[in-house]
Design a protein that fits this description.
By secondary structure, the chain is mostly helical. The chain has one domain (2-70). It is built from 2 helices and no strands. The chain has helices at residues 2-29, 34-70. Helix 1 (2-29) packs antiparallel against helix 2 (34-70). It starts with a helix and ends with a helix. The mean pLDDT is 89.
């Protein structure tokens, strides 16, 4: 049961980060000109890539662990 809850937390964090990037950061950057837009986008992309990739890998691994522990698709 605990691995399932941990997997749910990782999935929720991943979805929250994706929604924040889509709804807040993307819309705020679209108001900038091309030069400042690129300056803002490059470091944020590297940071978001590491955060979201880590959450996806951890969530997937813990989800598989939860499935292996219960042997059920729920």
């Amino acid at each position: 049961m605990i691995p399932g809850l941990v997997a749910l937390v990782f999935a929720t964090l991943f979805a929250g980060a994706a929604l924040y990037i889509t709804l807040v950061e993307y819309t705020a950057r679209m108001g900038l000109d091309d030069g400042p837009l690129l300056t803002q986008w490059q470091p944020r992309y590297k940071r978001a890539l590491s955060i979201q990739a880590g959450l996806a890998v951890l969530g997937g691994a813990v989800g598989l662990l939860a499935w292996y522990g219960s042997r059920e698709w729920q």
